């Protein structure tokens, strides 16, 4: 199908779309049929006429080869299959999030246990956990208590974590970043 030039098939500047039919810049192309059979190297115009004879389009699939590789396919179906492949690849991808749990130097024992359970849940889901401990007022004078709290967290979770960032103090906060083993 020889498609007229309009807004919808302007292929310049869109990196995810392929050049089709008359938009292919090379005069010589290697042609493959939709069933995988190779027709060999031929003139672009001859390849386009073969494609039109079959009611399909000539689509450039490997532009960097010498000569470029083109396939005779139904372009709409070809785009749909490519989008489907992209979506499948996206589904299989695991996005790792960083969950933040805030604690204080004077956090009570029960509240501490709740934070640890939440951290275990996040780690089982495959997420990173960042413990942030904020010092207020005179608590800064006893920053060692905050570091001890973070070390306690690290020891309580040591069987299921690997430490990405050791406990350290930055300004009025202390941090510990852990990830699942």
Q: In the residues, how many domains can be counted? A: 2
Low-confidence stretches: 5-13
Distance between the termini: 55 Å
CATH-level-4 superfamily name of the largest domain: Translation initiation factor 3 (IF-3), N-terminal domain
- Helix-and-strand structural type: alpha/beta
- Number of DSSP helices? 4
Report strand %: 25-35%
What is the strand tally?
Answer: 8
Helix content: 25-40%
What is the name of the CATH architecture of the largest domain? Roll
Give a topology summary.
Blueprint lengths: L27 E6 L4 E6 H10 L3 E6 L6 E5 L1 H18 L5 E6 L5 H16 L3 E7 L8 H14 L4 E10 L2 E8 L1
Parallel strand pairs: 1-4, 5-6
Antiparallel strand pairs: 1-2, 3-4, 6-8, 7-8
What does this structure look like?
The structure is a single chain. By secondary structure, this protein is α/β, with parallel strands linked by helices. It has two domains: 7-90, Translation initiation factor 3 (IF-3), N-terminal domain (Ubiquitin-like (UB roll), Roll); 98-180, Translation initiation factor 3 (IF-3), C-terminal domain (Translation Initiation Factor IF3, 2-Layer Sandwich). The protein is 32% helix and 30% strand. The protein contains four helices and eight strands, in the order ββαββαβαβαββ. The strands form two sheets. It has a four-stranded mixed β-sheet with strand order 2-1-4-3. β7 and β8 (173-180) form a beta hairpin. The longest helix has 18 residues, at 75-92. The radius of gyration is 30 Å and the shape is rod-shaped.
